[in-house]
Amino acid sequence: MAQINPSILSADFARLAEEARRVEGSDGVAGADWLHVDVMDNHFVPNLTLGPPVVESLRRATDIPLDCHLMIEEPDRWAPGYVEAGAGSVTFHAEAAAAPVRLAREIRAKGARASMALKPATPIEPYEDLLPELDMLLVMTVEPGFGGQAFLDIMLPKIRRTRQLIDKHGLEMWLQVDGGVSASTIERCAEAGADVFVAGSAVYGAEDPAAAVRALRRQAEEAAGPGREG
Ligand code: DX5
Ligand code: ZN
């Protein structure tokens, strides 16, 4: 099953509770699987967004579980606080973590899914042996920092290689893509083996964000075909 995670980076930050409700399901119609929350510290990336207090408030404002993507330095120090704030999944960057195994174990021990992200220039191969410690691997399909950037097609081989490693080890972990995912790029990602799709501008830039979520999910599932269970 393909999962669609709208990114609130493209939502109205003064009305986050309402923006979350715009992608919730209703009357048996599935909505967003997770709400993607981009945390930026103006050091790891040249942009600044929000921290644990906003995550805590958002947690109370919606039933959609929160997928926190930490684009920050020193995730070893800060990531556990996002689990405490209510995140159901916490993603730290491989490039920023001092001790990724210890950090992933700490996130899991605190009760959230542990996930690691790779910037476009970071290869997956050095992390093969770490995969069993993770619940999800995020392959960035833009340079992190901003919404609305063009999808990097050159990341498709990395998505494919990551899917092969996950399958080779027989792991249940998810493979997420983030950046430039839209109606015109999601099929390529699904064919390459991604099963969790972050979409910011493609969802919140649409007239009906909930309909955009459903359309993206349908496209991803059709492109993945019956062979992949996700
Ligand atoms: C970029 C963020 C993304 C961003 C995606 O650094 O990590 O989650 O919100 O936005 P779109 O889908 O517009 O590329
Ligand atoms: Zn993100």
Automatic annotation (TrEMBL):
Tell me which EC number(s) this protein carries.
Answer: 5.1.3.1
Q: Where is the active site?
A: 38, 178
Q: What is this protein called?
A: Ribulose-phosphate 3-epimerase
Co-factor binding comment: Binds 1 divalent metal cation per subunit.
Q: Which family does it belong to?
A: Belongs to the ribulose-phosphate 3-epimerase family.
Xref: InterPro entries:
Aldolase_TIM, Ribul_P_3_epim, Ribul_P_3_epim-like, RibuloseP-bd_barrel
Q: Which PANTHER family match?
A: RIBULOSE-5-PHOSPHATE-3-EPIMERASE
Give one GO molecular function term: D-ribulose-phosphate 3-epimerase activity
> Per UniProt, what is one Pfam family of this protein?
Ribul_P_3_epim
Question: Any stretches that span the bilayer, and where are they?
Answer: none
**Which gene name does the record give?**
rpe
Look up keyword Iron and say if it applies.
no
Q: Which residues bind substrate?
A: 7, 69, 145-148, 178-180, 200-201
**Described function:** Catalyzes the reversible epimerization of D-ribulose 5-phosphate to D-xylulose 5-phosphate.
The biological pathway it contributes to is: Carbohydrate degradation
Q: Keywords for this entry?
A: Carbohydrate metabolism, Isomerase, Metal-binding
Keyword Metal-binding in annotation:
yes
Which HAMAP family did the record assign? RPE
Q: Which reaction does it catalyse?
A: D-ribulose 5-phosphate = D-xylulose 5-phosphate
Q: What is the top EC class of this enzyme, as a single word?
A: isomerase
Which cofactor names does the annotation list? Fe(2+); Co(2+); a divalent metal cation; Zn(2+)
- Annotated binding of a divalent metal cation, by residue: 36, 38, 69, 178
